[in-house]
Write a structure and sequence with these properties.
about 475 residues; 4 domains; twelve-stranded mixed beta sheet
Amino acid sequence: MNQEELFEEIPVLDDSAVLKISKDAMKVLITLYDRAMNFQIMKELSEELDQAGITHGILTVPEPEGEDWVIARGTPPVDGKDSRIEFVFDTREKESNEPAHRSDESCFSNALYSDPKLLNTVINVRKGGVLARKIPPVPGKPGMNVFGETIPERRGRGVAFKFGEGVEISRDNQLLLAVRDGKIDLSRETVSVVDRWSLDGHVDASTGHIVFWGKELTIKGSVESGFRVAAEGSIVIHGNIEDAASVTAGGNLTVIGLIRSSATTVEVQGDMQCKAIEYSRVKVGGDLEVRDYLLDASCSVRGHVWIVEGKGLVAGGSILAGRSMAANIVGTRANVRTFIHTGHDPMLRERYENTVGEIERLSRKLDSVKAGLNRIRALDSEGALDERKTSIRDRLEEAMHSMERRIRMLQEQACEMEGHLGQMHKSVVQIFKKAYPNTVVSIDNSSRTVVRELRKIRFEFQQGEITATHI
């Protein structure tokens, strides 16, 4: 009996059984006619199996298979596992009914951040952040058929990264890295980091709060009531900012629609443009341009304020501007009190006051250090300093010099800010149509209340008081 014959049914055991091997040589079976399987049969078969070259996988105890018995089994190969890409961010879509969690300031500090209420609408990454890594292939293990012949395994294959803009491969070819701050975009296993992104629709329950670390965020709808938008760059909103919403922009902000409600807050580091502001609190680090009106709003602006398009109306509320201000109409026919204060940079004033306070605090601390140092030096002059006191003296001297350097730097900063604050009185308030009674105009530290309707008027600070001249 040889290998080729085994692939056909071969009579054995004096024709009382038939032996056969599977086509893949991984299994040997015996069919018994008039005998029951027992250990004696296995002993009788051992010589015939050996003559046929069946040396591997012979079973000590045969296994039934239908009407046959398996008397030998090969060892199948274990295939290797292919290399794969593992993303370090959650690629699963969240359900819209998941509980909401309000973002905190950590959204601008973590290397990789995803707001859990965003349904994965936005996943941000910092420059240098790891986006994905390669998991190396796992080697397989060869098998062996019943003839003792090796069966090669399938080796695990490598895989290539798929990436788009804003992404690079690490030097060791094992990581995908972000080359800029922005939003991670995953499309068909291809990863990109975009720093300009548009949301087609409203910021509402379907998106949750929006946090964006890129250069420009565009929202082609409104920021609905109670939702928050925060971007490190500029923001363009095609709709409105609604009741109790919050918008923070590290760059400029453009709002095509309205900003409304006393519970709404807007903070912009750069310039801001909008159609109108109703009752809201707005803080602008650059210039503010309103294309229609302000209604009982509270605006703190470091630069110029320009309200001359549309109605060009400022009705009620207050404007604090670091530079000049221009509007068509200020106040109302009902003489609602309206405050205009120019030459007042609240951010600069706050920085100046904080700097002066820090100088005073450090000066008090420096006095204490010097007093302690004088006591130590008195002991030194008497030759009474041991090693511990010498160490204290050295630390006090180092602290004194450090505080003196810090105080000098802060004094230089305070002096520079004083120069800017001293120029605030040069700002002007221009009203191109009319100023109603009960409008209060302040420039620097001087104020003037309008007691009768004035038309086409210019307010400026001259010789210690605010003057009004016709334009």
